[in-house]
Design goal:
Layout lengths: L6 E4 L3 E7 L3 H6 L14 E7 L5 E11 L2 E7 H12 L8 E4 L4 E7 L1 H6 L9 E4 L2 E5 L8 E7 L12 H10 L36 H9 L5 E8 L8 E4 L8 E8 L5 E8 H6 L2 E3 L6 E5 L10
Antiparallel strand pairs: 1-7, 2-5, 2-6, 3-4, 4-5, 7-10, 8-9, 9-10, 11-14, 11-16, 12-13, 12-15, 13-14, 15-16
Length: 305
């Protein structure tokens, strides 16, 4: 698998929201699950944009190009809707939001390409700058290094072997970190995708939409759903339902992100009831559908508080 997940992939499925101005960090601090005021120039963060009920409407990889220039990388299919909703809350804040997807080029680096180009960004969410080029180190996929390359479109693209979009998508799944897409819009609170365990939620920051629900889930020990890795021999996609054989009436989980596996079959990140994961006997689409084999996420989970 290491020879498969190796090279440079253009990330056309992702887009860029740019937030500029002296209140850029303060504004985002009040809207997202992450603390952007304390975010340094040498790191990036995962962040969620939630409804008042704590359900994720979008998620981002965010970082500061400068104290007054912040980029939010998200699924392109949700960018316009997310930008419109975020803009409603700007009001008197000195912050300008824009779709900068045509201004910046995005590439994924994996394997040798990540290790050679992103040599100074080894811990997850650390960031290295090479002139106008920003590189964010991502969570690995089965031990394989991965990084996000962001730069103005005028910069030459990163050099390396070509990596297919399909293989990059599989690496995203194997990292265990899903970004919100249209089929799972408002389907989960952050903890249902393990965001609190991979740096996506800051419980010490101030209020943001849905903050009370997110905090209550964590501090009252009511986390009944978690994200796991899963494999099936049949195709699956975000939004597909997961059932247990003993309960045909209601699903016990939802596919959050999926991709074809280079080794055959399909891999996915699935949000499941913890009890369903422990019991096993999982199936796609219905209680008698194709078998689904779930396994633990590839990182430790933050314990309930």
């Amino acid at each position: 698998m290491k020879t498969t997940l190796n090279g440079v992939a253009p990330l056309s499925h992702l887009g860029v929201i740019r937030v500029e101005g002296e209140d850029a960090a303060k504004f985002l601090h009040g809207q997202l699950s992450q603390d952007f005021e304390l975010l340094t120039l040498s790191e990036a963060r995962l962040a969620a944009f939630c409804s008042a009920k704590g359900r994720m409407q979008a998620s981002f990889i965010g970082f500061k190009r400068s104290p007054q220039d912040i980029l939010l990388i998200c699924q392109r299919e949700l960018l316009a809707t997310t930008l419109k909703r975020l803009s409603l809350f700007v009001m008197r804040a000195k912050a300008k939001l824009s779709d900068a997807s045509d201004t910046f080029a995005l590439f994924g680096l994996a394997g040798d390409a990540a290790e050679k180009i992103a040599t100074h960004a080894s811990p997850e969410w650390s960031r290295a700058d090479f002139g106008n080029i920003n590189i964010v180190n991502l969570y690995p996929a089965d031990g394989i290094s991965r990084a996000l390359w962001v730069a103005p479109v005028s910069e030459a693209p990163p050099q390396g072997a070509a990596l297919s979009a399909a293989d990059w998508a599989w690496g995203e799944v194997r990292s265990g970190i899903a970004l919100i897409s249209t089929p799972i819009f408002e389907a989960f609170v952050p903890q249902m995708l393990n965001y609190e365990s991979v740096g996506g939620v800051n419980f010490k920051k101030g209020c943001y939409p849905g903050q009370e629900v997110v905090a209550r889930s964590q501090f009252r020990g009511t986390l009944k759903r978690r994200a796991y890795l899963a494999h099936s021999e049949v195709p699956m996609a975000a939004g597909d339902a997961v059932f247990q054989a003993e309960d045909a009436d209601q699903p016990c989980g939802t596919v959050a992100q999926a991709a074809a596996s280079p080794a055959g079959g399909f891999d996915a990140i699935v949000s499941l009831q913890v009890s369903a994961f422990e019991a096993g006997g999982l199936h796609l689409f219905s209680a008698s559908g194709p078998a689904l084999l779930a396994s633990a996420p590839p990182y430790p989970l933050l314990a309930d508080i």
